[in-house]
Amino acid sequence: MERIDCDVVIVGAGASGLTAATRLKDAGRSVVVLEARDRAGGRLWTDDIDGAMLEIGGQWVSPDQDALIETLDELGLETYPRYREGENIYIGPDGELKKFEGEIFPVPRETEEQIVSLIDELDALVAEIDPDRPWAHPRAKELDEISFAHWLETQTDDLEARENIGMFIAGAMLTKPAHAFSALQALLMAASAGSFSNLVDADFILDRRVVGGLQQVPLLLAERLGEAVRLGQPVRTVRWAPDAPESGVIAVTDSLEVHAKHVVLALPPILISRISYEPPLPRRQQQLHQHLSMGFVIKVHAVYETPFWRDAGLSGTAFSPYELVHEAYDNTNHEDPRGTLVGFVSDEEADGVFSLTPEQRKRRILESLSHYFGEQALAPVVYYESDWGSEEWTRGAYAASFDMGGLARYGADLRTPVGPIHFSCSDMAGKGYQHVDGAIRVGRDVADEILASR
């Protein structure tokens, strides 16, 4: 077995791990990055599918994502705005299609008043939440012991208002049913984006895309690190000495032993327990990781000969908590004459369609898109489903979140180093939580943490 010696070994070649590795290397530390996949990028993946460039993983850039924007500038990557001209579509509980502009859906006046009231109440609560320390809020334990669905029920009897507000957190972000995560977890999700209003505003949260795809960020970082990045190297074992953390760690793959002073586990929290630790991690970490789970969402890509919805005066933006595809957007690539729609099927709805055959599932999903955009949506020239739940080295999307009560109980220890073992990924971010911006922020912080420890 080959032996490599370095200052820091990073497990995971996603945006967070590669950011940490780059910062450490720039500070004069030697690094090795071990990646289980045969590619760099983690949950960023831009690929050619049947002649169409598709963003299989993360893709959008919002104006508050300073760390990501700085990284794009450093790497010389350009962005372009998401197409949003024209009217949006909303389908209500009666199945009626309505067109609208702005942020508030065309619902009955009483429901609109309740939606606005809920947004105001959530914004007020979010303003009290420090995204880096949500457990420090005076009501953290209380808010973490009730589900977001139950919290909404305490605020209004209007079911359509609750379902629409719930959709923005449950379906669009955490990709879990609103009864499966706490009100505190929902507030963290909103606080990480600056406000609940920002999550409701698709023109803000889904503002721009990167020309050529967002995976270029990790690919270019990996390219700069050169031979320090080793692909196809899943780490099986981490050996460390709790009584003598200064002695460092050994990360073991099937063909390598990397001896280092520190290890950074830059991978989703649910994968941390897939590594064997000699000796085992402390009890606190063992319990903590059992209270985190990934969401579940299918990202659907449908490419058409032309963006036909634009001719009808539509933006391509569509919402409905009553549709299989609960949200859709114009996802046409930069200067591409073809048109692309991207849609999302989350949590329990995704469970349901995965009980079907692939052809049945495709038909059901395209039928849902056709309810928004008409019969032309039934016949894409390219169709693809991003199913991160079946990805061996991810196992869900978009990120991990705590079960009920877990955030207040364990959140403060999520990123706490264990001797020479450090943790880094977007799932552990405050600002930028579950986004590439958060991955970069945590990667920088962990690198600085290691540099300050010497």
TrEMBL record:
Sample GO molecular function, one term: putrescine oxidase activity
Domain Amine oxidase: 16-451
Enzyme Commission number(s) of this protein: 1.4.3.10
Spans through the membrane: none
Entry keyword set: Oxidoreductase
Claim: Lipid biosynthesis is one of the keywords in the record: no
Keyword DNA repair: no
Protein name: Putrescine oxidase
